[in-house]
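[Help] Beginner question about ligand-bound structures

Sorry if this is basic. My supervisor gave me a protein sequence and a SMILES string for zinc ion and asked me to "get the holo structure". I don't really know what that means in practice or what format the answer should be in. Inputs are pasted below exactly as I got them.
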Amino acid sequence: MSIFYEDDRKRIHKIVASPYANNCYIIVCKTTNSSAIIDAPIEYEKIIRECEGTDVEHILITHNHFDHLEGFKELRNKFNKASIGVGKTDEDKLPENNATINLFTKDEHITIGTLQVTAIITPGHTPGSTCYLLDKHLFSGDTLFPGGPGRTGSSEDFNQILSSITTKLFNLESDTIVLPGHGETTTIQDSKDEYKIFREQNSNQNLFGDVTWLNST
Ligand SMILES: [Zn+2]
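Answer (accepted):
No worries, everyone starts somewhere. Holo just means with the ligand present. The predicted complex, written as structure tokens, is below.
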């Protein structure tokens, strides 16, 4: 098993799926053995193996880009009692669906056994991008990475992702660990520190694309 974090209540597993090095996370409630899968990249067999011995209750999607959904159909078929969670405006790219589906339009709670996860709506990278918070771990999808926000397609989207990050994610406790959809972790405090420098050094109003906090002009 690929256990990333464990305490007396829960485990967080992390699987890295090629070819886009997508991170898939699995949350397990140790009291009930209930679990939730966060994102559905291509290597669904690996994900299914990692879920063995747990009762998958939710498949939570951070956003509708294909690399996060290539294994969705297989996971949904395998765990056909699981309910699906996705931001309402990102539902369109999900394969045809008969499962129970939660379409998030505002921040809301999801129960995994005795654990409570909060879906936090963070538009910008995509209109329905959603982060998931479990205690001090934030599953940020492609909204927040170490060193910068996720890629945006216009300056409007960039302003929107900044607003999502600064008004919502930066209100979380500073020692919250950020687990993005690709790559390594950061913390809310590190992101805030880098963002502060970005704000001080940057007056370009038309920024978008692959922006980093410390190297963008
Ligand atoms: Zn994406």
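A couple of things worth pointing out: Residues 63, 65, 125, 142 surround zinc ion (CB under 6 Å). DSSP finds four helices and 15 strands in the chain. Feel free to follow up in the thread.
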